[in-house]
Amino acid sequence: MTREDKANRGWVEARADAILEGVPDYIWNGEELPVPVEKIVSNTFGLLIREVEDMTEAPGLEEERSTNVSGLLLTGPGEIWVNAAEARQWEGRKRFTICHELGHYVIHQDSLEPTVFCRRIEVVDGAEPGPVEDPRAELEREADAFAAALLMPAALVAARRVALDDDLAALCAEFGASEKAMRYRLQAVPATEG
Ligand SMILES: [Zn+2]
Questions:
Q1: From ligand 1's centre to the CA of 87, what distance in Å?
Q2: How many whole angstroms from 40 Cα to the centroid of ligand 1?
Q3: Which residue in 44, 111, 171, 178 is deepest, having the highest Cβ count within 10 Å?
């Protein structure tokens, strides 16, 4: 991991933490798992989440770039679209994609296109980020870091991995996260004593 990666993660992580702290108690008490990310997206940010069978219906999505779209953000109407086939197959993946799109909405507010679409290869679900050559890849990495931090808040991961003795399946079930995303998160968040 490069120095730049760490710097990015810190900044993005802080934004995600601040958002979670600002969530009113009646939506989330800061402890209960899994984090109700869909409620937070709709109640706190007023974004509509839709599971869509055919992502090519999205306005502004050119056909040649429409394959393997995992999620997208319509900034005008304030909608997050999630690939319905993926959502059915992997609940954790769906939650990650929703958080990834929220990440674009929250941290890239000033540089957003009317339609922000993210292909499967870009929503990396917590995988080790690749080299950064273009600004778009940089934004995708930031959105992924934000998603991981929202779905698997560092303080809760640190505590629960101790309580569950790093049982990966149990951690995934508690946080509603995919194995891949949790595995990567465990590398990033050290365990805390008791
Ligand atoms: Zn994205």
A1: 16
A2: 19
A3: 171
- Ligand 1 centre to CA of 138 (Å) is 10
Edge-to-edge strand order for the sheet containing 79-83? 48-52, 79-83, 69-74, 115-119
Q: Give me ligand 1 centre to Cα 192, in Å.
A: 31
Please report the pLDDT score of residue 1 as a whole number.
Answer: 45
pTM to 2 decimals?
0.88
Q: What is the pLDDT of residue 6?
A: 47
Per-residue pLDDT of 17-67, as tens digits, reads 999 999 999 999 999 999 999 999 999 999 999 999 988 888 877 665 667
- Give, as residue ranges, everything with CB less than 5 Å from ion ligand 1: 118, 140, 143
Q: What percent of the chain has pLDDT above 70? A: 83
pLDDT, mean of residues 138-159: 94
Report the separation in Å between the CA atom of 178 and the middle of ligand 1, taken as the mean of its atom positions: 18
What b/e sequence results for 143-162 when a residue is b if at least 16 CB atoms lie within 10 Å of its CB, and e otherwise? bbbbbbbbbbbbebbebbbe
Q: Do 100 and 142 contact (CB within 8 A), yes or no? A: no
